[in-house]
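Repro:
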Amino acid sequence: MFRSLRKMLSPAAAIRTPEAHAMKLLHIDSSILGPNSVSRALSADIVARQVALHPGTELVYRDLASDTALHLTGVHLAARQGTPIEDAALRKDVACGDVYIDDLFAADIIVIGTPMYNFSIPSQLKAWIDRVVVAGKTFRYGANGAPESLLPKGKKIYIASSRGGVYAPGSPAAALEHHESYLIGVLAFIGLRCHRRSRRGYCARPRRARRGDC
């Protein structure tokens, strides 16, 4: 009997024990090129790997190119302060931002697919960022003025990026890189530290250069 008990309590037995908490994964794509997008392919590969590592993962998918939030207006900011919204479409759009924040709180793993457009992230992804970086919701300013995250700790963030060209430090175009650096920085501002990046690019050549999302 004691031998059986030791076997049950062994590390190997613990590994086989099902996870008490089902992982929740938030998958975000922002490329406008649909099935021709490389960043979408990269993000899908990361998601597939995470699902394989964590069976039973609950997946939430947000395609920001096909279901785009409106860009911020003064009405959005007023709504945050409690001003009633009379327009039904705008009221629905404001509620969408609350859903995005709920997504962040619930997710254990966050995968973001982002191409580089004109040296930065797609405007659709910027609209999402403007909905989730909200003082009093996802962060607050501490006594010394530094931002403090209000999100649960321990989330893993994966960025799947694609770009056309070389923007590494020391390269001629390094000063134009406002893509990964911006996304990593703004996520860190609300306490989301990038766990890993997956990147793909190309060097354009006449008649061979792949246009768009690379």
